């Protein structure tokens, strides 16, 4: 029987296709794209590897704000496939990371040479890798700052408008110094009202000095309440937007700051520590509650707690807390009021219980 020509044609075509398929090399599958969900370690390792491998064509990396994908800027189109093979999304850009850093260095040198020439309305500059530009931030409406930014900038520089100028921030920490016009005391604890107003609580014989109060980083605010004698607590309203209210108490050279977690009262015989700007961190035990103390001159204070943790002038108002032992979390106990002796020979110290002060002012502690 004669073989069908049509069948023969199909047979030959199929054999040829099979031969071509066998001859073509298999295309390697690309790895899954790295995203924010891939984990910090995986993303960081890929960023570092690509920065090293791409060298001068590298122009920064970032997680895309829309897709979350790790994106890498590249100035050389021939390296795009290399980025994809590493699990990142490449983006072809005009300027390398080194060029962008050079633009920033140019402005840094201008500022270092003549810092007074930089208008206060110029709040700073930074490299935005996502847009491949150096960005100069200028307070909205400040014509002098805008003119400086435009004159100082070069190709690859963008001016952005911001609402506010930055300010230095500093922490209000228990036990650190606070200065009144006529003397120095120490921060007790940070607290706030139900409306969110912030306060520093310290000894009343300190706040009775009145006026504006300065801390380690500048002005905190003004005295807004004081009770002494009979009690020994007072409050300072925190009006500074630069001062950050913290739950911390300074341990000075004895260790890192401890964190106030609440205000449960330590039992008689239990360990307490106090922090103050004169003698730092000192510890002892609670010896009695509700002691009446006569400071002389008609200054009698009721309801103080007696301890054998020493203190000296300037420590007044500072934080008394439960002894943290080997931990870092404490319970607020009170405000250093006064005592006898010193930290060389030892002595007796009294503190105003913090819960009474909080109740009197309707405040809650800043805790962490």
CATH class of the largest domain: Mainly Beta
- Look at the structure and name the CATH superfamily of the largest domain: Trypsin-like serine proteases
The main sheet orders its strands as: 17-18-19-22-21-20
Tell me the total number of β-strands.
23
Indicate the structural class: alpha+beta
CATH topology of the largest domain: Thrombin, subunit H
Order of helix and strand elements from N to C terminus? HHEEHEHEEHEEEEEEHEEEEEEEEEEEHE
CATH architecture field of the largest domain: Beta Barrel
Characterize the overall form. Answer: elongated
Radius of gyration based on Cα positions:
33 Å
Keywords: Disulfide bond, Hydrolase, Protease, Serine protease, Signal, Zymogen
GO molecular function, one term: serine-type endopeptidase activity
InterPro entries: Pept_S1_alpha_lytic, Pept_S1A_streptogrisin, Peptidase_S1_PA, Peptidase_S1_PA_chymotrypsin, Streptogrisin_prodomain, TRYPSIN_HIS, TRYPSIN_SER
Organism: Actinokineospora bangkokensis
């Amino acid at each position: 029987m004669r073989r069908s020509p049509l069948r023969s044609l199909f047979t030959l075509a199929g054999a040829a296709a099979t031969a071509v398929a066998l001859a073509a090399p298999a295309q390697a599958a690309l790895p899954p794209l790295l995203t924010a969900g891939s984990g910090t370690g995986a993303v960081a390792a890929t960023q570092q590897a690509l920065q090293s491998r791409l060298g001068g064509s590298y122009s920064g990396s970032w997680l895309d704000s829309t897709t979350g994908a790790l994106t890498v800027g590249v100035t050389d189109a021939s390296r795009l496939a290399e980025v994809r093979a590493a699990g990142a999304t490449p983006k072809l850009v005009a300027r390398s990371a080194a060029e962008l850093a050079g633009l920033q260095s140019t402005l840094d040198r201008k500022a270092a040479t003549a810092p007074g020439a930089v208008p206060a309305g110029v709040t700073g500059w930074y490299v935005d890798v996502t847009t491949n530009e150096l960005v100069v931030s200028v307070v909205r409406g400040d014509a002098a700052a805008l003119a400086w930014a435009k004159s100082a900038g070069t190709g690859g520089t963008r001016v952005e408008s911001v609402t506010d100028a930055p300010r230095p921030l500093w922490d209000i920490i228990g036990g650190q110094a606070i200065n009144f016009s006529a003397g120095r005391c120490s921060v007790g604890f940070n607290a706030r009202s139900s409306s969110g107003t912030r306060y520093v609580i310290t000894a009343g014989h300190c706040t009775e000095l009145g006026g504006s109060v300065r801390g380690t980083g500048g002005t905190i605010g003004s005295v807004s309440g004081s009770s002494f004698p009979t009690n020994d607590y007072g409050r300072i309203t925190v009006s500074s937007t630069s001062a950050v209210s913290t739950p911390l108490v300074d341990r000075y050279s004895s260790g890192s700051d401890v964190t106030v977690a609440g205000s449960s009262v330590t039992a008689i015989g239990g360990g307490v520590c106090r922090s103050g700007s004169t003698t730092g961190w000192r510890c002892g035990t609670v010896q009695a509650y509700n002691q009446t103390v006569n400071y002389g001159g008609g200054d009698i204070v009721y309801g103080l707690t007696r301890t054998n943790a020493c203190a000296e002038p300037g420590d007044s108002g500072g934080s008394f807390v439960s002894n943290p032992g080997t931990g870092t979390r404490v319970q607020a106990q009170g405000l250093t009021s006064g005592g006898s002796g010193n930290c060389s020979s030892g002595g007796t110290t009294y503190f105003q219980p913090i819960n009474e002060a909080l109740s009197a002012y309707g405040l809650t502690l800043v805790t962490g």
